[in-house]
Structure formats: C-alpha cells, structure tokens
Amino acid sequence: MTIRNDISEIVLSEEEINKINQRLGEQITKDYEGKTPIMVGLLKGSIMFMADLIKYVDTHMEMDFMDVSSYVGTKSTGEVKILKDLSTSVEGRHVLIVEDIVETGTTLNSIIKFLEYRKVASIEIVTLLDKPVEERKLNVDVKYIGTEIPDGFVVGYGLDFDQKYRNLPYIGLLKPEFYS
C-alpha cells in the first residue's frame, strides 16, 4: 500500500497547482517590480509551494525562511514558537510571507507583529490555500490567495500530518481514520 491510498479525494491536482503558481507569480511580478522583495517561506509546509511559485516571479527578489510552530497534531495550540529566525535583516525591506495554508490566523498574526517590530517597509502574504475567513481566530489580510478550500484535513504538496504526506505532488483530503 502507498500513501496515496490514505487520501479520500484530490482537492487540487498538479495541473491546478501549477496554474495557481503561474497566476500568483505574474501578479507578484507586477506588484513588486523594482522593489526586490524578500520572500519569507514558512517552514516546512511552504517549501514546495515557494519553490514552484518563484519560477514565475520575474523580478529581482531574495529568499529567506522562518520555522515557526503552533500545531500539535491537527490543532493549533495558539502559542507560536520561532524555531528558526531569518538570516537576513528586513529593516526597510518589502517582505512577502509565503504560507502553505491560512487557517486560524494565529501564526501569521504573530509573525507580522514580529516583522513589524523589525521595521519592515511593507508586509504582504501569499498563500496557496485559504480556509474560510469565518473560521479564523484572528483577522489576517491575505493579499495573494491561490484558492479557497472547504473544511477538511488536507495534506500533500508540503502540507503534512505528523510530518508525513508532504511529498505528494497534489493536495488531498486525508481519510479521517489516519488522524482521528
């Protein structure tokens, strides 16, 4: 048996993800022309999304990463821990946070405050997946949204459950028996 058997339904195919990346990359290119943004990937979930997205960003940019944690199993703890900080100074810079999925808004809210304290010129967020806004605990303004997805536990293309399933080339709904 393969891990693909643990998926009940494909939510986004490889083709659909590629089209989203192209659309978002073209918009980011226009919006950041002449600005050289720092794209900050949130580890580990955003790795595949960021790697594919930047192929379509046709302007000068830099990359950096943060590793933050606020989840235990399938639930957000509400407490955000910074496990790896940026290696680049962001003072006076345009920062584009690259996130795999926006759910509660807790993690992003903490990161935004953290970066504002460091006196960034601007902060925007790009996410591949956006859960319904009414499910958020904290309001977060997400400028670039790949697609909205319904409730359900999704994995693949960087998203995980217990560090598994990140290597699927698509995004799928995990069968409840694997995370309940």
UniProtKB/TrEMBL annotation:
One Gene Ontology MF term: magnesium ion binding
Domain Phosphoribosyltransferase: 14-161
Catalytic activity: GMP + diphosphate = guanine + 5-phospho-alpha-D-ribose 1-diphosphate; IMP + diphosphate = hypoxanthine + 5-phospho-alpha-D-ribose 1-diphosphate
Enzyme nomenclature, EC number: 2.4.2.8
Source organism, top-level taxon: Bacteria
Record's keyword terms, sorted: Cytoplasm, Glycosyltransferase, Magnesium, Metal-binding, Nucleotide-binding, Purine salvage, Transferase
GO BP terms: GMP salvage; guanine salvage; hypoxanthine metabolic process; IMP salvage; purine ribonucleoside salvage
UniProt pathway: Purine metabolism; GMP biosynthesis via salvage pathway; GMP from guanine: step 1/1; Purine metabolism; IMP biosynthesis via salvage pathway; IMP from hypoxanthine: step 1/1
GO cellular component: cytosol
Pfam families: Pribosyltran (PF00156)
Enzyme class name: transferase
Compartments, as annotated in UniProt: Cytoplasm
Cofactor: Mg(2+)
NCBIfam families: HGPRTase (TIGR01203)
Name by which UniProt lists this protein: Hypoxanthine phosphoribosyltransferase
Gene name in the database record: hpt
